Amino acid sequence: MSNAPATSLLRRTRVRVRYAETDRMGVVYYANYFVWFEVGRTDWLRDTGHSYRAMEEEGIQLPVIEAHCEYRRAAKYDDDLEILTRATLLTPVRIRFDYEIVRGDETLVVGHTVHAALDRNGRPCRLPARVREMLT
Question: Is 105 a residue of the active site?
């Protein structure tokens, strides 16, 4: 998460691994990390006072246009995890979220997603000024 600017708000979110999120060996299924990225991202936006719901009501959508995940260690059933989320403004219409999922002091996963701001017609538009100002 070192590539995010120091001024970026860090959001910490806790999740506990549910049985349904694991395979027969009790190891978290790889796609669930992207679900947890979304949990962290949603909480980050809510902390800014600009939830997904509010942005969509204003006519702004944030579809994922890029996603990356690097798996270092496996999470397992009933682990208590922390999702660390930061955001970086790439352009006035693109935002990148960086994630780190940790168990205690051990990093399990790092990754990022890039999102484009689109209007109701699916055309690129500026991110809300409130979000842009936080990240510049």
Answer: no
Contact 37, 28 (CB under 8 A): no
More confident residue, 118 or 7: 118
Q: What is the pTM of this model?
A: 0.89
Sign of the dihedral through C-alpha 59, 53, 70, 2 = positive
Domain boundaries, the chain: 11-134
Give me the phi and psi of 127, to 5 degrees please. Answer: -65, 155
Neighbours of 51 (CB within 10 A): 14
| Mean pLDDT computed over 105-123 | 97
Q: Alpha-carbon distance 131 to 35, whole Å?
A: 22
Given a cut of 80, is residue 123 above it in pLDDT? Answer: yes
- 133 Cβ contact partners less than 8 Å away, ≥ 6 residues apart: none
- Active-site annotation holder among 23, 78, 80, 119: 23
Q: What is the CATH number of domain 11-134?
A: 3.10.129.10
For residue 53, give the H/E element and its range.
helix 52-57
Give residue 1's pLDDT.
Answer: 52
